[in-house]
# Entry
Amino acid sequence: MAHGLSEHGHQTPSEKPHAAWLGFAEAIVLAIVAVATAWSGYQASRWEGKSTTDYALYERYSVLSQGKTTLAGQDRLYDIVHFSSWIDAKLAGRERLAAFYERRFRPEYALAFRAWMRLDPLHNLKVPPGPIFMPQYQDANASEARRLEVVASRHFDLGVSSRETADDYVRATVFLATVLFLTALSQRFALMGPRVIVIAIAAGLLAISMYWIVTLPRA
# Structure
């Protein structure tokens, strides 16, 4: 189409100053596009790398959280088994055996057990059914599992956000490539009208792309 329009004639002398200014505008657009494309591609690469790192950290902390959750389950099972043995010994009147089980309680469980015993559970039916139901019962592995789960979730959210930012920079790069194509196309026109229209469209797309690049976060 540009070749066909160029066959209608050459530029008149009055068009030469306008062509010079238009050529200068095209050069400015090309310069901005070159710098902006390099910057946008660099930022897209940085954010993509950041996303990959955050996803890797998410996997790492998820595995650690699952490990702590398993240990917390084992702690709870240990506490329940020993408490059940203590109950059997206590009800059978075997105080030495009951005292032995008390000494084998984990320190965290022993704290809840003493608080539970102060409520006189053998005579007070309103007492919670066991030390694990007391507010004093805490498990370090369970607390650590919850903390690691929060950290893993935070890294996952950061990974998603970084990936979206990288995609935004890629979108800006695609727009800049379109600007480059339109600017090169405008130089094929001999008539000023079509050339001005094409370069105006390119300038509009460039403005949109630059707005995205300026407002997007930087890595």
